[in-house]
Design goal:
Length: about 110
């Protein structure tokens, strides 16, 4: 089962993606992201935790780009966190590793808890 879990911090949030991110569930991520920002307008940092992400398709990549742009327009710093080897290879092949701030989940949690 694919799930989205949101962990809130004082000025930020960690969005944990579990399972797959594809055309069948990108709307869930988008809706959860929008709800999170509406409920927490003071959010200044967002990290998408990909530690438990099994696979991602082009729709998933497109959604991450869209979320990054929405965050940027709102003055929010956007991170991709903890890519596993398979998903990291897809980011490298697509050159999206140059588009996103990619950090370890440990580094992200240190940044957001400052």
């Amino acid at each position: 089962m694919d799930k989205i879990l949101i962990h809130n911090y004082k000025d930020g949030a960690e969005v944990e993606v579990i399972g797959n991110l594809n055309i069948h569930n990108i709307d869930t991520l988008l809706n959860d992201f929008k709800d999170m920002l509406e409920k927490n307008p003071e959010t200044k940092i967002v990290g998408i935790n990909c530690e438990s992400l099994d696979s991602i398709d082009s729709s998933g990549f497109g959604m991450l780009i869209s979320l990054s742009r929405q965050a940027e327009k709102s003055g929010i710093t956007f991170y991709i966190c903890e890519l596993n080897k398979h998903v990291s290879a897809l980011f490298d092949i697509s050159h999206l590793d140059k588009f996103f701030h990619i950090v370890s989940i440990k580094d992200f949690r240190q940044i957001v808890q400052r």
